[in-house]
Amino acid sequence: MLEIILALYSFYTFMRLYISFMQIGYINEEKREAPVLMSSAKYMVAANYAVAKEKLSLVETFVDYLMFVWWIISGFALLSSVIQVEGTVMQAVLFLFGFITVNYLVGLPFQLYQTFKIDDAFGFNKMTLKMYVIDALKSALLFVLIGGAIFALLSWIIGTYEIWWLWGFVLIFSIAVMANVLMPFFMSLFNKFSPLDEGELRDAITKLMEEAGLKSDGIFVMDASKRDSRLNAFFGGLGKSKRVVLYDTLIAKLNKKELLAVLGHELGHFSHGDIWKNIGMMGLLLFISFYLFGHLPESLFTKMGVVPEAGVQIAVLMLLLPLVSFVFTPIMSYVSRHNEYAADEYGSRMGGKENLVSALLKLITENKAFPKSHPLVIFFYHTHPPVLERLKELGYDASHVVVEDEKAEDTLPNDGIFAYMDRK
Can you give the residue range of the structural domain that contains 44? Predict the structure, then answer.
């Protein structure tokens, strides 16, 4: 069984690496063609940013594979020998803390490189190292308090019930739904949310929500610009906790009509029940995962040099979950892309096609989002349709538009990383 799992994970890793290589080659070819939707300089920057992230992902995927092999060959046995505490639940919690801490420390250099090297070079990152550390400490505290309680409950279930996988699924799925309800609270620990000032924009958004039948907890502006320069807007929370959230960067870059079109798109998701559809798909994925991993043979754990105690079983579930999710990813991505088209159609009716088109053009330009991707990347990972296809559905023909180039120094990072990323 251990050999089968290793073979499956090796295939999974190979597929991820292959898709990344295809994406890098595809973008490096396309960036030499005539630019679309943005100026030549910004088109080149968007391409180089996409390639830089993909190259980092390549290295991270390979390191993840090495860590997987280490865990199943000797890592679990080593950690189990170190964690010797009286009490099944406490031992399980400490074992899981150790497992996650090791993985976090291995992945930390990639996070730092993405934030302070790549994102910084392309003008996205606004965080200081101090802010990053404070965020990390807050996250760690939340994880210890909330994660520790969840691990303890799940460990108790495993030690108490024979069909622990079923009750474990119920617990984790319930917590996932509750997390959506409490999301505004958790986000407020990291960002400041200020009620949108009264005025024309607020009145227009309120009217738009009334037309869609949405009752929310309010309309808020999030100080996203202190960390990142990207543009975004979303509806957060469930039930009475729902709130409209606008990034301050979005308000700064989009006019009122464009903002309303973007919010119209988000209201389309609300009107079509997409949030509940996503929760349902997540629940199905969790159920299948808990069922499969709840029926792993004891011989598998013996080969890893451990006994199937609660902490080890949960860690193995977490380690193998990407295998199941990778199989489901294309299906979930397809459904999500379908929902995005429907939300675009709804948003264009609420806010006007021309305004939604204008907003999409600004979003991809400001977010330096390269408008093309390899078909495999779209098939597996794209939760949104390619922007060219979205614009086409909205009746916009990109080939008829000529965009004047800005000065290169306004758009191209003058960092040594740029030359590295531009290599094919």
Answer: 2-422
